[in-house]
Amino acid sequence: MAHVIMIGGDDVSYGGPPPNGGKWQDIFRDEVKDRLDMSRVHFLGRVPMML
Questions:
Q1: Which contiguous run of DSSP H or E holds residue 48?
Q2: For 1-32, how does the pLDDT look when each residue is reduced to its tens digit (9 = 90+)?
Q3: pTM summary value
Q4: Are strands 4-7 and 41-45 parallel, antiparallel or unpaired?
Q5: Cα separation of 34 and 16, whole Å?
Q6: Which of 17, 33, 38, 46 could staple 9 via S-S, CB 3.0–4.6 A?
Q7: CA distances from 49 to 2, 6, 37, 46 (A)
């Protein structure tokens, strides 16, 4: 089974903040929770950039 790895912080970098406050991660989770096995979706937060 495939796993999904989401990398990034909760701060806004490229777009605007989520409508009605909150976090984009929570919005994503609410949109897909009925279609994905959330035990295979991993949110790592910010990770150091390795060159």
A1: none
A2: 899 999 988 888 788 898 888 888 899 999 99
A3: 0.70
A4: parallel
A5: 26
A6: 46
A7: 24, 15, 28, 9
